[in-house]
Amino acid sequence: MKAPQILIIELRSQYTWLIERSLRELGVRSAILSPAKAKDWLTANRPKGIILSGGEASVNDIDPPIPPEERLSIVRWADIQVSRILKENGDYERMSQLVVVLLCVNTVGVKGDARVYGPTVGVRGIITSDFMTGRGYQIPKEVRRRITSTLTKHSGIVHVGFFEEDKPPGTTEFE
């Protein structure tokens, strides 16, 4: 059996199993571990991403926000497209982490002859050995252009942004 692609570090969240199930439905292998066990596990495994699930605020969240299915389907589609393009160009395997997010801000653009308002997709790659610090992955210019061209063909995506700063000061967490 292949190693998990995503490590979910459990910090007392009511959403951990929902996250794990959603990943499984997408065909992504994941492992759920406590912070104490995660460090040892990371020395032997190299997941493509880490999710910190929980914290003080999420434990007490009575009425959590639920993203509309339309936004979830857009970010799922975008993640598949970005991963495919990066794999085809040999960049995907060079990264330790890849994050594709749908930012919670609408921007203006033009599609055809009309002004449109819609979200921005953010793409962030990191090269790291400890998942606490790392170097922002510089996606080659032509690959960035291909990603942007592909993603903005979707009617629900207006802009694409690339986040290439190191970690720190940047992180892979978008809120």
From TrEMBL:
Keyword ATP-binding attached: yes
Any one Gene Ontology molecular-function term assigned to this protein's record: GMP synthase activity
Positions of the GMP synthase C-terminal domain: 86-174
Keywords: ATP-binding, GMP biosynthesis, Ligase, Nucleotide-binding, Purine biosynthesis
Gene3D superfamilies, A to Z: 3.30.300.10
Cited InterPro entries: Class_I_gatase-like, GMP_synth_C
Gene Ontology cellular component annotations, sorted alphabetically: cytosol
PANTHER family: GMP SYNTHASE [GLUTAMINE-HYDROLYZING], GMP SYNTHASE-RELATED
Protein's name in the database: GMP synthase C-terminal domain-containing protein
The organism of origin for this protein: Candidatus Taylorbacteria bacterium RIFCSPHIGHO2_02_FULL_46_13
Taxonomic path: Bacteria, Candidatus Tayloriibacteriota
